[in-house]
Amino acid sequence: MRRLSTTNIFFILIAITAVVLLLLNFTNPQDLGLLGVLLILFSIYIFFTVLFYFIYSLRSSSNKRRGAEKKVDNSTKPLAISAILALAPILLITLNSLGPIGIVGLVSIVLFETLAISFVNKRL
């Protein structure tokens, strides 16, 4: 699988941000319907996944420049962790739509994220 360059990832972030901002500024959830709300949530999820992967790729490229020890490049692990971290804002939006976000909701999201990331770290 070919790795995306930093420039390509940056342009993907810009494009997704533009789409989400256009949808949020020119429509409301009642006009969009369920499919439109799903599209916005999916776009936010993809945005955060790409953002976290972008941050990871910048960090790993800076480590390579500094001469850090070479590890086996496993590109699925950072992508899986990015996808897990990107789920947190979606879960917060979902909890907020059900009512006010309490401490129990926040703790459950943090616990879920911690367990999921530890599972990925153990498996990959």
Verbal overview:
The protein is mainly alpha-helical. The chain has one domain (6-123). The chain is built from four helices and no strands. Helix 3 runs antiparallel to helix 4 (103-123). The mean pLDDT is 82.
Question: What's the SSE blueprint?
Answer:
Elements: H1 6-26, H2 29-66, H3 76-98, H4 103-123
Helix pairs in contact: 1-2, 2-3, 3-4
Which features would summarize this protein structure in a list?
124 residues, mainly alpha
Structural class: mainly alpha
Low-confidence stretches: none
**Approximately how much beta-strand content do the residues carry?**
under 5%
Question: Largest sheet, described in full?
Answer: none
Order of secondary-structure elements: HHHH
Q: What is the C-alpha radius of gyration, as a whole number of Å?
A: 17 Å
